[in-house]
Design a protein that fits this description.
This protein has about 190 residues and is mainly alpha-helical. Helix content is about 80%, strand content about 0%. It is built from 6 helices and no strands. α2 (about 20-55) packs antiparallel against α3 and α3 (about 65-95) crosses α4. The longest helix has about 35 residues, at about 20-55.
């Protein structure tokens, strides 16, 4: 008599899901949080600026510059909101392992690295270009702030390059390729 395990019905073997890296999920989640925060902050800024412009309209001495201020503010606010919306959308797509989002994040990381590389020396130059007379009182605080901004720019440079290199790595590319292949094989439902 055969053992019971041999005669037991065999379960179908399910194909293994491709491994999803924690790195991509975390980068997407953090970026999505910053994107949503940017949207909320941008809307709050618009409300605050409208209130301030409303108050300033009562002063006839600023009437000549009010239209220019309003145009500059609205232009910057709209660009900021669009950028925050794009980051939020791209973050969601990155979490969903869509390859266009991986490429978009690589481009954003490269641009961020270039900006950091340009800003850090400017902050350091501004910090050390102050003469001894300016170093009294607020000058020292300004110098410290500029040095801190240079350090933050260098940290941002390192993080941006790290994200760029990781997103360009073979395992991450393969993960996005597997997700893309899975989406292309998904059955399309017809509504007839």
């Amino acid at each position: 008599q055969a053992p019971a395990a041999v005669n037991a019905p065999q379960r179908p073997v399910r194909p293994r899901k491709p491994e999803q890296s924690t790195f991509v999920t975390v980068v997407g989640g953090i970026s999505m949080a910053f994107g949503v925060l940017g949207l909320v902050g941008g809307l709050g800024q618009m409300l605050l600026m409208n209130t301030l412009i409303g108050i300033m309209e009562k002063d006839p001495s600023v009437a000549s510059v009010l239209d220019v201020m309003r145009a500059m503010f609205w232009g910057m606010a709209i660009v900021g909101l669009l950028m925050s919306a794009f980051v939020t959308w791209a973050s969601w797509a990155l979490i969903q392992r869509q390859n266009w989002a991986r490429i978009a994040f690589m481009v954003m990381s490269a641009l961020s690295a270039v900006a950091s590389l340009l800003c850090a020396p400017l902050f350091l130059f501004a910090a050390f270009a102050m003469d001894a007379g300016e170093m009294q009182g607020m000058g020292a605080m300004v110098q410290g702030t500029q040095i801190a901004m240079a350090v933050l720019a260098l940290v941002n440079l390192g993080v941006s390059v790290w994200v760029l290199v990781r997103l360009a790595s073979e395992p991450i590319r393969a993960e996005f390729g597997a997700a893309s292949a899975k989406r292309s094989r998904a059955p399309v439902s017809s509504s007839a």
